[in-house]
Amino acid sequence: GDALPLQRFPPSSKQPVPVSYPAACQPHRLPARPLLRPARVCQAGDAYTREKFKPQPTRDLEKEKRRLQNILASGKDEVEDKMEQVLVRKKEEEIAEPDRFEELMNEIQERREFLEEMEALGQGKKYQGIVLTEISQKLHEMEIIDKKRSEEMRNIMTKAFPVGNKSNLQD
């Protein structure tokens, strides 16, 4: 039950060389029963000390310096200008609604593709009436839009060119 010897015994032709191990590698002898450390020993160690709080900058200081330089140089804050540009862009996007006529064209194309897929799967007769009805509704809506556009164009043209024969524009 003893520990192994720390020295190696070389072959008979060589002299014995003592082998020394670092203190960390040597096995520690454990006591037969665990010992409790007294409270003052625990408190003397680092277990009860708190790390000091080290605040870190919450904002980019270089960015703040550039911002203040711009304010002092031009009298305006770049952030405000950027916000105004973003608002203008959003308003332009809201004003520029997608063309309903183009949307209808895309929807009709999707309906046709769907019908072709169903026919390829052998379900064409089941969906043909429904899809053709939807397509005719879309075409009717496109005709209404076309009439409105042509009427608007006539009104614009008559206002822009009041001189001349109006009957030629309406034909």
Automatic annotation (TrEMBL):
InterPro entries: UPF0193 (IPR007914). Keywords: Coiled coil. The keyword Iron-sulfur does not apply. Pfam families: UPF0193. Residues 58-121 form a coiled coil. Residues 1-20 are annotated as: Disordered. It comes from the Eukaryota. This is EVG1 protein.
